[in-house]
């Protein structure tokens, strides 16, 4: 990344921490043994994998034996959902929400096409669940709830503690996609006894291509990858050693630094958000303003295309995102914002800024210096409305 780049797209992926790279490097070169080998050269690598497992478990307050390494967050979600279905068969009932990441949303729909019952709960205009809707669902021990800990687009945090309580009272199991939450907010699977929890390395300063699934009891699922004893038979395949070491180190760093980093990052996010809402005409916050990740803000700029904002920000070296909104080549607005009932034009202009431990105050100030001009420029091109005509706050549209 050039020194001029201002990277505010950390929910898409993060910079690999220098400490993580340093920890990984020896496992490409000197320590390249196969952890399954009988000789000490491989055995020593096996021991380091177990250290990484402890580091991941430490961040979640889990037992190391409950942590299973996978290839990414999507695989972890698939392993929980498909693995449960493979164990339970056609009687599986899935209950999830309409704002899940596609790794959960599409997997649930896929399983539904293959015979599992599926209920997708709606969210309110803040992206929040109504727990009474969940309580009214029939559940039994063949029911798997799947609710994300935090939303990747808005940062909204679901009440996983309460959802888990409901699941446990009713004999159901619960999976949580915590890919965006791990390393950003404290997670304790002993205090919040979920059955499965997915995480992904590249969202917390480890590389892309490594993930993990916390599994409370491995007899609740069947594996997706068969043919090897690795990962307790839950995920066959020779381990991706350097990346596992990197994920372990990233989790150790997150555990050590989280309280301090959270406070700093939240203050920077708030400075950015308040600044934008005060200076950019027609700027509106999307998502619950309180129950939210400390690093994320999702803001719409009425009557402007989000892509236009991103392209002009890019000219200043500023990286943000339209909030997973538009799949390349498609003009469909984000399924998350649409599920929240956000009007089409507002959803189209949504821009997500996601910060990290490497974000600085100077970077935030640079964004605040250029963004109002970008918004005015794009509005001056808008066939609908000019900036001076925009009322602040804008009337809410249905
Ligand atoms: N779940 C959530 C909430 C995500 O944000 C992502 C990635 O953006 C994933 C799952 C998938 O993770 P991965 O990219 O490691 O497959």
Quick recap:
The chain is α/β, with parallel strands linked by helices. Helix content is 38%, strand content 13%. The chain has two domains: 6-12 and 257-389, Aspartate Aminotransferase, domain 1 (Alpha-Beta Complex); 18-254, Aspartate Aminotransferase, domain 2, CATH 3.40.640.
Number of spatially distinct domains: 2
Strand residue percentage: 5-15%
Q: Report, as a whole number of angstroms, the end-to-end distance.
A: 41 Å
The spatial strand order of the largest sheet comes to 2-8-7-6-5-3-4
* CATH superfamily annotation of the largest domain: Type I PLP-dependent aspartate aminotransferase-like (Major domain)
Give the overall shape, derived from the CA principal axes. Answer: globular
CATH class of the largest domain: Alpha Beta
What is CATH's topology name of the largest domain?
Aspartate Aminotransferase, domain 2
Provide a count of the helices.
11
Number of strands: 12
Query: What ligands does this structure carry?
Result: pyridoxal-5'-phosphate
- Radius of gyration computed on alpha carbons: 22 Å
Overall average pLDDT = 94
Main β-sheet description: 7 strands, mixed
Low-pLDDT runs of 5+ residues are 324-328, 392-398
